[in-house]
TrEMBL record:
InterPro entries: UDP_glucos_trans, UDP_glycos_trans_CS. It comes from the Eukaryota. It is an enzyme of class 2 (transferase). Residues 1-22 are annotated as: Disordered. This is Glycosyltransferase. Keywords: Glycosyltransferase, Transferase. Its EC number is 2.4.1.-. It comes from Spinacia oleracea (Spinach). It holds the Pfam family UDPGT. One of its GO terms (cellular component) is cytoplasm. Coiled coil: none annotated. Belongs to the UDP-glycosyltransferase family.
């Protein structure tokens, strides 16, 4: 009888099982941001078993990296068109229209991510998509920005750029000396920025340009997110980060993200980290480097976007050849303005003696090679951090975006290289290559080595970037509960 009475009693109802937090990752579909967001996805899967991750990817990127689902089996990939046909990397002149089309496609589908078995509870988004951010907030999805620009540029964009546009100091006046210092820099009086060091949009001649308006809106919207992920480490930019926290208190410094990803992977597997390059890498350059003396080669690469004229290419060729320094030079297909390719060739005897040219290279591996002693770079943020991690001094030839600010910091704040901004003369190039690789080599290498060790410490267990990632994951889990409580009817 007792067992019958017990059976008749209603069973205690179990609380419903909550799905794990579900994170949407939305990068700008260009090489640098894609690489950073894929590294973030990798870090999140390595660091937590309790996150669902969906990567909102451009179709052309997925076509170029078809092995992504195999490499990141715990990441779901949702594909969107950017409105540009084909799978070739996108040219700069299509940037604004590409972003607009891609953004509208994501906005249209965003509500669907609330209807899945694991509804979206957090959106990590590149700051260049303000309309997506607004729609996510309307749907009750917390937003964390991941701006893959350098924090020194984000700082300038936040505190200087809108003010300069509003006051009419940008566009620059005709005949203005761009080497003059900018006055009244907030919070960083010890950093001397010249007008030529300001972010690339300050060099515009047309403030109505859609790209300029897009970046300005991003600058003004920055403080409105629940948090900001930065690809940096505290020791590198301590004072700037303090300034940024006055505007955006919730910062997650988790970089250098490529080193952080590699460090978390090493205890799990000995597998080499796979490249996220949208171009086919020529590994013959590694074999060539193996035959070169230690720290004797300058690596030359101007990134995935920077265009060059044939005249600029000629000046760099003469400067490199005349310097007498060994060089490994990446000459990306389609990088020359107005022509498909160039018949300009480095003399065969020079290539046989001390030069090697490829269309694309495994950059992280190249910079880590013992033969590399310097990096002639466009000063993109990914390239700069990769160079810092390996302790390689830099010769900076920036083109725009955040590169103009970064090159100033490399040369005059961190003092780990030379800023060759706005110069493209064979005599100057020859002289500065010799400065970097011979005359001032020791002074640059000692400072670069100190920063390299600091970066490694930041991503080890207990380091500042390790802790930043841990806090990010915990906050994502907390935001899941926050969103759930806000959506429960009272």
């Amino acid at each position: 009888m007792g067992s019958q009475r017990e059976a008749a009693q209603p069973q205690q109802q179990q609380p419903p099982v909550q799905p794990p937090p579900s994170v949407l990752l939305l990068p700008l579909p260009l090489q640098g941001p894609i690489n950073c967001f894929l590294k973030l996805a990798h870090l999140l899967t390595l660091s937590s078993d309790h996150l669902n991750i969906t990567f909102l990817n451009a179709e052309f990127v997925h076509q170029r990296l078809p092995d992504l689902p195999t490499r990141l089996p715990r990441v779901n990939f949702s594909l969107f068109s950017d409105g540009v046909p084909g799978d070739d990397p996108r040219p700069p002149e299509k940037f604004a229209s590409m972003v607009s089309f891609f953004e509208n496609e994501v906005i249209r589908c965003l509500p669907e991510f609330l209807k899945s078995p694991a509804p979206a509870t957090c959106l990590v988004v590149d700051g260049v998509f303000p309309a997506v951010v607004e729609r996510a907030k309307e749907l009750g999805i917390p937003v964390v920005y991941f701006s893959t620009l350098s924090p020194c540029c984000i700082w300038a964009n936040s505190f200087l750029v809108p003010k300069l546009f509003d006051s009419g100091e940008v566009p620059f006046k005709k005949g203005m000396d761009l080497n003059e210092p900018v006055s009244d820099i907030p919070g960083e009086e010890e950093i001397s920025l010249r007008w030529c060091d300001l972010p690339g949009i300050c060099r515009t001649h047309d403030t109505t340009d859609p790209y300029i308006q897009l970046v300005l809106k991003e600058c003004r919207e920055l403080p409105k997110a629940q948090g900001h992920i930065l690809n940096t480490f505290d020791d590198l930019e301590e004072h700037l980060l303090a300034e940024l926290r006055s505007l955006c208190p919730n910062l997650y410094t988790i970089g250098p993200i490529h080193l952080h990803s590699r460090t978390r992977l090493e205890p799990v597997t000995e597998q080499r980290v796979t490249s996220n390059s949208l171009w086919q890498e020529d590994r013959n350059c590694i074999t060539w480097l193996d035959s070169q003396p230690s720290e004797s080669v300058i690596f030359v690469s101007f990134g995935s976007v920077v265009p060059m004229t044939i005249d600029q290419l000629i000046e760099f060729q003469y400067g490199l050849v005349n310097s007498g320094v060994r060089f490994l030079w990446v000459r990306r297909p389609g990088s020359l303005v107005g022509i498909e390719d160039s018949s300009l060739q480095v003399p065969t005897e020079i290539l046989e003696e001390r030069g090697f040219i490829v269309e694309w290279a495994p950059q992280e591996e190249v910079l880590a090679h013992r033969a590399i002693g310097g990096f002639l770079t466009h000063s993109g943020w990914n390239s700069t951090l990769e160079s810092i991690v390996e302790g390689v001094p830099m010769l900076c030839w920036p083109n725009g975006i955040d590169q103009l600010v970064i090159s100033r910091f490399v040369g005059d704040v961190w003092k780990i290289g030379i800023d060759m901004k706005d110069k493209c003369d064979r005599v100057v190039i020859e002289d500065m290559v010799r400065d970097l690789m011979v005359r001032r080599r020791d002074e640059f290498s000692k400072r670069a080595d100190r920063l390299s060790k600091s970066a490694a410490q930041a991503v080890r267990e207990g380091g500042s970037s390790w802790q930043g990632l841990h806090r990010l994951i915990q906050d994502i889990k907390f935001m899941r509960l926050q969103v759930h409580s806000e959506t429960v009817p009272k």
